[in-house]
Amino acid sequence: MHPIVRLLVQRIALGLLLLLAVSAVIFLGVEALPGDTAQAILGQQATPEALANLREKMGLNQPPLTRYFQWLGGVLTGDLGTSLTNGADIAQSIGQRLGNTLFLAGCAAVIAVPLAILLGLIAARYAGRWPDKLISGITLTTISLPEFVAAYFVIYLLTQLIPIFQPVAMVFPGMTFWAKLHAVALPVIVLVLVVLAHMMRMTRAAILNVMQSAYIETAELKGLSPMTIIWKHAFPNAIAPVVSVVMLNLAYLVVGVVVVEVVFGYNALGQYLVDHVTKRDLPVVQAVGLVFAAVYIFLNMLADVIGILANPRLRHPK
Amino acid sequence: MTDKHNQLDWMVAQARTGRMTRREFVGRTTALGVSAGLASALYGKAALAQEAKKGGKISAGLAGGQSTDSLDPALAASEVPFQVNMTWGEMLVDVNPDGTLDHRIAEEISSSPDATEWKFKIRAGVEYHNGGTVTADDVVATLKRHTDEKAQSGALGIVQGIADMKAEGDMVTLKLASGNADLPYLMGDYHLIIQPGGGTDAPAAGNGAGPYKVTANEPGVRYTFTKHANYFDSAIGHADEVEFLVINDNTARTAALQSGQVHMINRVDPKIVELLKGVAGVSIKYVAGRGHYVFIMHCDKAPFDNNDMRMALKYAINRQEMVDKILGGLGSKGNDFPINAAYPLFDDSIEQREYDAAKAKEYYDKTGHDGSPIILRSAPGAFPGAVDAANLFAASAQAAGIPLQVKLEPDDGYWSNVWNVEPFCASYWGGRPVQDQMYSTAYLSTADWNDTKFKNARFDELLIAARGELDEVKRKAEYSEMAHILRDEGGLILPMFNDFVSGVSDQIQGWVDDPNGELMNGRAQVKCWLA
Fold first, then answer.
1. pTM for the predicted model, two decimal places
2. Contact status of A92 with chain B (Cβ, < 8 Å)
């Protein structure tokens, strides 16, 4: 078997194992929370009879282990069950919201990743000089702002002072692609501001690291222009660390943006998860947790694989 | 004099275009020397002159919705499901802003002299969205579904008292175990939306007889509606379409109103009301209602089982400070019983209790309490500003020598682990249309939600007697005595009644202050129209 294929198979198997472990952890975590689904649903209106009725109806009387394996069996057959709180089909709900999550993350990534790498290259080219300091200063400022502050700032700027966008960024099936883009403009701006610095700094550091190598000196002695050296000779060797940081940020864009979703009323997975956590809607929490874990594991795996493919030493191990 | 006339004309014009509420109008015209009665009549004329415009899409941004919400009326427990259900659903009756009954599906209501048997005549030809007709059988089936504990209905307590229900032709007859003069009001409870076949097969189908049909139901995100063409009442339901966006974030909701993305928002944060007043095209509506914020003591647990301790704490709270600082002035002082002037038969002669450190200390010293800290539990979600309110309470109590301490609890699990479990905590009530319902829900000895564990035989006796009493004078006296008992012996500390504070665009016409609930008791989108 080709080493690359074996490596891929290994990584995928490990990923699945990790996913299983994560599902158990999520389940345990939710079990450990105070109160149960029935109490969370009834809230202030809980009477002992109503609680008992609801628990029986929802199958909450069965032991946790039984419920865990019932659920796991369902997942393997593609059946995520129905929400305990409103009876909606979970797979369907997640499907639509996952689409929205990926749309927002995709829009942000399409702008943020090339921009961050470009800025990183420029910063490396002029390391220690004013363009470097300006880029670093601005991006470090935007990453240091809490997301909701950045969000309120762009809401104020772009809906009140210059009213070109809408503060509430919901998207619905049936909207045209351009209408959707217009709707998500503000959250995309916030997310770009938030993820830019990390990727930019990593690109800059990785390039500068490579620039210390002897072969770069050779390139300089050949008389190549600084940008050509960086692009053709330094960047290929800096791909592995840059890719892993890019993937981490992509994962963040998918799973970590609940604050931005709430501020803009964006109907994606994060908000959906939080609502169901507060109502102890176990099947939904587990399903969304699993989706998030899968995204994380997949993106990290992808980063590893790209890193290996980009590095001849790892590609041809002795 | 001509100056006054000009002002009066201007105000009439304001009222006619809906830019001035009755309260404002009467207040400002009486300042000009017009008698209150005349002012009120003038306002009525001016408001009548407004012609409702048809068409357009009314959009509202609402807090209080989650992706876990359902269209099943039995399960509605927060603002968004309430508002949504009032758009597609119709009950037997509704309650008008002035506290009278608005006959909806029930065309006529009559009762036996002892108020134990009630007859509701069902309006002919009221259509559901799917074309079916509302029948007396549907009404009985609906009420029956809510009596089934498996339906988890929020109206279970209301329908439980109905011993027998039957449908004959267009007449529904309800027989009660004991007389209840308020029964028609109870039928206006927002859970009791009439559904085809009682909604037993598909409780969350959203198929009702209300003014709008549900076209998109995305819980926690948005709801859209189109006009129900065959709606029986042409006087309301002016817009062609209605849209609700669920915007739980205060800042985003306010920004959506300011930028014109929505026409109305609920729950405006009292802290920003002053700032919003200056915004063009937006007006803030504050409506005194029945909702109230409370601190509740369990009367059966030490040290609160001693009435001297309860009285000490009641005198140790600074109500005016609570209204000013927690509600930003948008509310009124409470008097330790859950009834205010928004209720029929309210006795306004009961003396208002104020902060009195000396009296508090006197009562506290009588208890002989050992001086160990008295713990008050609070959480941000108990009511808006609950933690600040608890801290203010602790400070004013400590000034009176009472060792009151606040323990901060997490929102998560507050209603299951703290409320109704711990002996002293912060909470809230939304109020009910009539006194009987409020008292029966939480202060009757046997009530499920008796969250102060208050048990008083005389109080229970009066409550049952008042329920079947058709003589209003006697009834009012009975309610007054109950209020006194609860105020002086109960476990309830009620520092403030909160106003409903909403933000409304100037494009919205026909707004009427309604104390029964938020956003015109859930019907602003149905009763208002676009300019």
1. 0.80
2. no
